[in-house]
Amino acid sequence: MKMQIKEFAKLTGVSVRTLHYYDEIGLLKPALVDAQNGYRFYDENSLLRMQEILFYRELDFPLKSILEILSSPDYDKQKALAEQRKLLELKKERLERIIDALDGATKGMVTMTAFDNSDYETARKQYEVEAKQRWGETDAYKEHAEKTANYTADKWQEVNDGLMSVLAKFAECKNNGNTADSNEARLLVKELQDYITENYYTCTKDILAGLGQMYIADERFKANINKNGDGTAEFVLQIANGVINANAIGNSARVCTHLCIGAQKIRLTAVE
Fold first, then answer.
1. Cα(1)–Cα(10) distance, rounded to whole angstroms?
2. 3-state SS record for 190-224
3. Are the C-beta atoms of residues 153 and 25 closer than 8 Å to each other?
4. Cα 223 to Cα 51: distance, rounded to the nearest angstrom
5. First to last CA, the chain
6. Between 63-70 and 44-58, two packed helices, what is the crossing angle to 10 degrees?
7. Which pLDDT does position 134 carry in this prediction?
């Protein structure tokens, strides 16, 4: 499913102007930009990314903080959703108090405590600080932020297209009958590792292991990688497992949970 920007804006309730700005700051990139006419297109992964953004906006997070959090290679979506729910429950409780106060006002009662928002604001600010510390201050994130700080939209397109080209080679390698432990496959893993290091951040063996795990655990990544051929994402993981000690995978999988295109901005999902 691909949507032009006006259709995507209508579906999400976000203005076209806002989408242009999100694209400009790297918060939400289009899935595709037509090279001839410059038209922006969005897809299902774009919707997932926008939903994450809107959850944070509903909690009054500034865009800068949202970008830092979602761009972290260490971002844990499920944990973030659980914490967001807690904050929304506090917000809900406050609204219910205000409604009760409103009902009381019709009877001449005055209740000022209903407007107290301190519990929510304290919890929100604490979560924002903790989220940035947890997901926005890892070494990989800092290196990524520094290395990509001056990337233009054209540069992002060039880098991300290059990454997809590397991943396409894995499908070709698999289709040619090479096994995961073949020399050809191992050389491709090295090429992938070098490409990420050159364009995003240092791709250590631990991070590479986490990437392999993420490529099949995250349906967005899996679907986009498998566009090159069914089973490509699984093939990458098999090769990574052969190159790296399997014990490293469990420990490092979370390191790359949101190597997202929007997020880490490796736009495999073209979200983000």
1. 15
2. HHHHHHHHHHCCCCCHHHHHHHHHHHHHCHHHHHH
3. no
4. 19
5. 16
6. 130
7. 59
Which range among 2-6, 102-106, 139-143, 254-258 has the greatest average pLDDT? 2-6
pTM over cut 0.70 = no
What is the residue-wise DSSP string for 88-118? HHHHHHHHHHHHHHHHHHTTT----GGG--H
Is the pLDDT reported for residue 186 higher than 80?
A: yes
CB neighbours of 91 closer than 8 A, spacing ≥ 6?
Answer: 59, 120
Residue type, 254: R
Q: Specify which residues 33 forms β-bridges with.
A: 40
Burial 219-255 (b: 16+ CB within 10 A, else e): ebbbebbbebeeebbbbbbbbbbbbbeeebbeebbbb
Structure tokens at 242: 């052969």
CA atoms within 13 A on the CB side of 45: 25
